[in-house]
């Protein structure tokens, strides 16, 4: 059957046309920003629509809004990756869709057919899939899809496995700075003290002349990107002076124009060849982009010595040197707002039931312990590099998800043991009905906002706004499509949680009665006895 007549697609076209148009408009805006204002041709408006097979929908009755938002996706800069309207990531591997960030559990769903459909100027990339991307869809999926989903389910991690996972996470965070310092030592040893002196000169010029101000995050990010660009050119010029001559390649003029346009002190001379590639990559915010640098190398010339590694190391070197300046500014400028946030978090910590009710968290998730994630949020200040801070935030979110899985797993085990005990006490026969298999619990984006806010409340939120500001400035340097990556998603979620905390009005406690409902009491209320 042609996918144009699929019932779900017809429902979208007739009932949710405005939602499709909005998703297409977001895609077109992203493409337009990426191409630049000099491009006169309109950006293509495209949407990815996932169409569950009709057989897989039998017996399911999900909320229509949930079904629609889960299966309308916007494409990203990577052709195989999509993000649905609920902020969940989906990755395509050949004829299979794989769940990404934002989903409560891992799964793989087969693509049965695909077709491109044009509708009123919007390109619909339609995929017929074996099962809907819903938590209770496993029973309706074909055997292959169900088995695959169960095989990818993540069991709760406890004991030695938990300790090993914690050690690995911390090691990964420490590796970020170690790798940068190792690369820095390599090019410093090769180029001598002159390279460090020149970088210190550029960084000192930035500190002495640039005025930081709240509300100018994008401008600060741009100036830092320019600083990294100039420092990268200085290092590459000293590592490969022969390549820095104007005869090194046809891109010298473009690179010189870039340096001049940066508005910095470009006395290092014109960059050409591979230097232009790195300048374009770093100047465009693509610090780690291999494709941009590789595509602009002169034909017949092999890759220069670790250009991408040098650019990454210089970026880390610069942020390590300017960290104290940025951190001192953020802590001082945000001090009043930080004090207000800490007061609000204290009130929420003393009234968690109100927070859960206000954000409509599922009752099953209200007894989860989030102390491990709260401790990780407290550790954000211990890491200097923004890459380490965002990785630590992602670690805290993974701990939230792991705690929820473990808690739900324990509750289901208790329920089954109790049902089994009652069956034995009643001396029921073998034909008696066994307890039904528990259904997985979906952690939605709204749930994640609330759970992150609980973790922040338990942590106290000390210097949290300064950490968020540093991560935000670093994130603004990335290309637009990078806003769809996992770390950016978690940072946006934390932004939403803290924004809610700052504006919410806490209920008044009855006179003479202290506030109650902290986490220990809440856990006691929701944990069922075996």
TrEMBL record:
Pfam families per the UniProt record, alphabetical: VPS9
Entry-linked SUPFAM superfamilies: VPS9 domain
Domain VPS9 stretches: 335-510
Record-linked InterPro entries: VPS9 (IPR003123), VPS9_dom_sf (IPR037191)
Ranges for region Disordered: 146-169
Transmembrane segments: none
Top-level taxon of origin: Eukaryota
Signal peptide start-end: none
Protein name: VPS9 domain-containing protein
């Amino acid at each position: 059957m042609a996918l144009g007549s699929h019932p779900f697609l017809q429902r979208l076209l007739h009932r949710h046309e405005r939602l499709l148009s909005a998703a297409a408009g977001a895609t077109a805006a992203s493409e337009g920003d990426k191409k630049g204002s000099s491009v006169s041709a309109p950006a293509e408006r495209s949407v990815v629509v996932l169409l569950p097979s009709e057989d897989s929908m039998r017996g399911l009755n999900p909320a229509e809004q949930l079904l629609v938002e889960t299966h309308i996706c916007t494409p990203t800069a990577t052709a195989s990756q999509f993000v649905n309207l609920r902020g969940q990531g989906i990755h395509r591997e050949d004829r299979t869709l794989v769940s990404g960030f934002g989903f409560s559990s891992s799964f793989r769903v087969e693509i049965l057919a695909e077709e491109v459909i044009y509708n009123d100027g919007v390109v619909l990339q339609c995929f017929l899939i074996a099962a809907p991307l819903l938590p209770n869809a496993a029973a309706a999926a074909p055997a292959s899809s169900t088995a695959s989903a169960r095989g990818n389910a993540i069991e709760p991690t406890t004991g030695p496995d938990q300790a090993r996972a914690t050690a690995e996470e911390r090691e990964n965070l420490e590796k970020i700075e170690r790798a940068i310092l190792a690369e820095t030592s390599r090019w410093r040893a090769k180029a001598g003290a002159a390279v460090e002196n020149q970088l210190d000169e550029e960084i000192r010029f930035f500190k002495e002349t640039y005025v930081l101000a709240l509300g100018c995050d994008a401008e600060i990010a741009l100036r830092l990107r320019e600083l990294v660009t100039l420092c990268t050119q200085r290092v590459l010029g000293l590592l490969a002076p022969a390549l820095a001559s104007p005869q090194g390649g046809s891109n010298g003029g473009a690179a010189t124009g870039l340096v001049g346009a940066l508005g910095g002190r470009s006395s290092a001379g014109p960059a050409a060849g591979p230097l232009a590639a790195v300048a374009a990559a770093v100047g465009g915010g693509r610090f780690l982009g291999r494709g941009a640098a590789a595509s602009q190398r002169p034909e017949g010339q092999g890759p220069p010595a670790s250009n991408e590694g040098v650019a990454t190391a210089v970026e880390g070197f610069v942020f390590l040197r300017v960290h104290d300046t940025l951190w001192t500014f953020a802590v001082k400028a945000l001090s009043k707002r930080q004090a207000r946030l800490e007061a609000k978090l204290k009130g929420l910590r003393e009234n968690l039931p109100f927070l859960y009710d206000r954000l409509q968290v599922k009752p099953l998730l209200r007894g989860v312990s989030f102390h491990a994630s709260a401790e990780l949020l407290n550790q954000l200040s211990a890491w200097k590099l923004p890459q380490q801070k965002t990785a630590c935030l992602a670690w805290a979110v993974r701990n939230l998800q792991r705690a929820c899985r473990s808690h739900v797993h324990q509750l289901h085990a208790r329920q089954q043991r109790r049902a089994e005990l009652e069956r034995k006490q009643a001396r029921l026969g073998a034909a008696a009905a066994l307890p039904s298999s528990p259904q997985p619990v979906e952690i939605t984006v709204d749930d994640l906002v609330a759970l992150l806010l609980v973790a922040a409340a338990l942590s106290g939120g000390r210097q949290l706004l300064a950490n968020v500001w540093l991560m935000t400035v670093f994130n603004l340097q990335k290309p637009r499509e990078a806003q769809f990556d996992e770390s950016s998603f978690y940072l946006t979620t934390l932004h939403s949680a803290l924004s809610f905390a700052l504006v919410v009005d806490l209920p008044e406690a009855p006179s003479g009665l202290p506030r109650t409902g902290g986490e220990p009491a809440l856990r006691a209320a929701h944990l069922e006895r075996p």
